[in-house]
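[Automated response] Your request has been received and processed.

Submitted sequence:
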Amino acid sequence: MDKKFRAERDSLGEYPVPADAWYGIQTARAVANFPISGRRPDKDFIIAHARIKRAAATANMAAGWLDARAGQAIAAAADSIINGEHHEQFVVDRFQAGAGTSHNMNSNEVIANLANVALGGKRGDYRPVHPNDHVNMGQSTNDTIPTAIRLAALAKLPRLLAAVEGMAAAFSALGAREAATVKSGRTHLQDAVPTTLGREFNAYAWTLRRCAAQLAAARAGLCEIGLGGSAVGTGLNTAPGYIEAVAAELARFTGEPIRPAADLSAQMQSMADLLQLSNGLRSLAVELTRISNDLRLLASGPRTGFAEIELPAVQPGSSIMPGKINPVMFEMLNQVCYQVLGQDAAVALMSQAGQLELNVMMPALGSALFDAMDWLTNAMVVVTEKNLRDLRVDRERCRAYAHTSVGLATLLNSAIGYEAAAEVAKESARSGRPVRDIVADKGLMSAAAFEQLVEQAAIAGNIDKPKPA
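Generated structure:
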């Protein structure tokens, strides 16, 4: 055999493995079988799976099932992966064998080879540590992969929640700053009663925090794991006390309240907790899409749009139109949100696609969740930093729109009634004259008094009954 490869053997026969690889034959077969997306495993998922291997080794040593020398070597090898080493050795495509057997064996082989070399052996000669007999002791793909998906999601969740709160805090700061900035409200994209820009921004902040609460509520379900169920949830080939011990180890590693699920079989069959997380991601993406579209409208212009706000320029906007600046950060956020909606649809379909004792769609399901969480986190961070923190407001333009809005006729309802106020609104729309001037001409109140009424209504949200001039 070429010196660049070593020969390994499994139940299917002999197969070449790159000589310098820490992985082994089953990983090499998977690389050849699944040249699909070119995307390797998620970093948090690699670490989560290595933590499971380390926790299992510790629990098996405590039970007297795993020799201390081999167990400590496995733990040390897993620690190196947890600390960021050897991630380039995880080479199986995200679209792979159902349930994730290929990734499970990738981990088993890398850890076994690292352990054996540390103990004086060589790569590919699985003595004294064997990938299946020792690294995978008491485990199955059926319980390690869904547990690793849950642990990886738990690792990502604080970063996502921090990004949501960062954007919400930026909107809250804008809301406080612009609390007295009167502007025209718009419903159906038509003139409505006056409001303030601060109220709009505060509403965005409140909505985002509600989304964060929905996401945070998914945490409890993710902490219930099926590890120890082994094949089909029976606990086959696990040591006494293993189920509780391995969960306790993972709780210690992660700082999360990890605990065995009340029904280990259910955590292999059902992806409901992951679906709940995806539902939260979908809700966040929907709200972010709406908010992005609002800000793009408010920033439209600079001469022919709303132009009530100005988003910081981060790059030239056109290859042909000089000086053009586009709302590129929120355009990017829209695109991310649409992709997340697609990932959520995939998660929903894959969640219902499990059969009997196992959901075999887990590799792609996990990948879809990880992408959605990472994309939203990264997009929200850069939008907040590059566009929200230095957002500028054209207060005079806001005020001008507010005081020329046809919707101001609504403020007359309590003084002259709906029908008469409607006639004022129609006259304003027909003639182009501000409601303020029509009110003054009709002797309802002075122009100055009406302007004061507009400010009061916008900021306070309630008004005294208008007094005639």
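Summary generated for your ticket: The chain has three domains: 5-137, 144-395, 405-460. The chain has 18 helices and eight strands.
If you did not submit this request, please reply to this message.
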